[in-house]
Amino acid sequence: MDNDQNSNTSKQRYSGKVHLCIARYSYNPFDGPNENPEAELPLTAGKYLYVYGDMDEDGFYEGELLDGQRGLVPSNFVDFVQDNETRLSSTLSTEQDQNFINHSGPALEGDRLEISPPSHIDSSVISNGAGTLDVNIDEIGEDIVPYPRKITLIKQLAKSVIVGWEPPVVPPGWGTISSYNVLVDKEVRMNIALGSRTKALIEKLNISTCTYRISVQSITSKGNSDELQCTLLVGKDVIVAPSNLKVDNITQISAELSWLPTNSNYSHVIFLNEEEFDIVKAASYKYHFFNLKPNMAYKVKVMAKPHQMPWQLPLEQREKKEAFVEFSTLPAGPPAPPQDVTVRAGSTPATIQVTWKPPTLTATGTSHGANVTGYGVYAKGQRVAEVIFPTAENTLVELMRLRSLEAKEVTVRTLSAQGESVDSSVAAIPSDLLVPPTPHPRTAPKSKPLASAGAPETKEEHLGPHLKMDESWEQTRSASPVHGHMLEPPAPNFHSPLQGRRSPSPNRILPQPQGTPVPNTVAKAMAREAAQRVAESNRMERRSVFSERSNAAQYANSDDEEDGYDSPNVKRRGASVDDFLKGSELGKQPHYCHSEEYHTE
């Protein structure tokens, strides 16, 4: 390709394997899921294109349309025309090769995937390293055995004929041809070695009373060529028109037409309901109709176009060029079901992904004449998910719904304006996906240790949304540290609303008191002295807080309940229990536990 093409045409030269493909679906990259749609090729269902090399890891090919536009092609949107790889040339490096790729008009046995008559472009010329070959791209595929060409009736006598032909075109690296078979009415009359003259004298014929089909066939290591690709009729009542027109494999939207050619050098014009529809090249004798209308009657006419005037035939026989056949398509029925249904894990733990291969759709998006609208996923006869897109290939299904149905398998149906398809093949749901996920235990967050605490780091348990550190725990904490007039832990039979909890941290072990307990009166004096020191040190830094709360926050002396200690009318400055104890001598004990509110030496 020239380097001055527009931006839609890649300037890179591709090399290696070249495949002829046909688009299964129409595709507009700007309606697709990717961020750079201009790098992808727009596709029209039924159109031919080329792809180069192998598919990349994302599932795209490098491709080229027949108009020369290049870009990425999604692999699930195209099918190879030939089953095996077609190697046109080891390297497409010359401008002549590039022109062939961009401008040749391919046709496989006359097949067309369009309802409208396509335009035709003459065959181009490619180089095989040994000369030039005037061939179409479908004539050099690895799955097509090269066949002899241009069979000619050199001479016709009363009891014999002489025929000649040209050698077949063999692609580079395809293989070798060993010989030719010459057949009369499918019976081998002689075998001619390769390298001999490509002519044959066929005797013991009764030309005046019988009609014979003479064919020449290539013999190769990969099989024999199709005898109808190099054939002609001789004898009595031979006419130009083809014979044995048949229509097979009729569906709601398609049909296959075939015939027996009088001469394989003839091309044939196809008429559908009296309108010229398409032209089938020489050496082809089949045609596939697509995009027909359901429940419709069609009349087909096939007219032979001789490459040269058959002067050996009488005028009346020369003028008979047409043959006819009629058929009707099937009524529109439910669409075909999806194929290859599978189930795998979804994008989230609460979903699974169901994938499938859509049925073959026409360019207008129909299957069996039904207008496909999307796909539905079913479990135990109930639709559990659906996607409204004719070419969709997967969707997500909520696991909760499948568990509620106790479903272990799913099917997929094609949805259409004319109804649903039958169920697809059953796809089992992996058992590990149906098991509810095990909840993960919550990890208790760590809290910073108190500055004055010499004990190891204290952990607080996360009590959850319904267990707050409220009065239930405070009642446990409110037990006076001088329980029983001594600094002892609560009695074992003490019960609180959170019975069985000693502290917010179940991992911490309750320390046991040791040594002689401090007398009650001494403990009170030490506590009062500590509270005064704390209040004095915090007065300046909490002045603003106390000024706002001075009228609202008044705290009674926690010792008012003790016998004969202080008047009930005496009020504290507002120091918390923690602050109260920090400055006291009790706070200097090596085994202080903030959450348990008692002290040991």
TrEMBL record:
The lineage is: Eukaryota, Metazoa, Chordata, Craniata, Vertebrata
Q: Which family does it belong to?
A: Belongs to the RIMBP family.
User: Would the keyword Repeat turn up in this protein's UniProt record?
Assistant: yes
Protein name in the entry? RIMB2 protein
A Pfam family for this UniProt protein? SH3_9
Q: Where is the Fibronectin type-III domain?
A: 337-438
Q: Which UniProt keywords apply?
A: Repeat, SH3 domain
- What are the Polar residues biased-composition ranges? 547-557
GO cellular-component term (any): synapse
Listed Basic and acidic residues bias regions: 457-471, 526-546
Superkingdom of source: Eukaryota
Q: Which residues form a coiled coil?
A: none
Give yes or no: UniProt keyword Repeat: yes
Q: Where is the SH3 domain?
A: 16-83
Stretches for region Disordered: 431-601
> What Gene Ontology terms for biological process does this UniProt record contain?
neuromuscular synaptic transmission
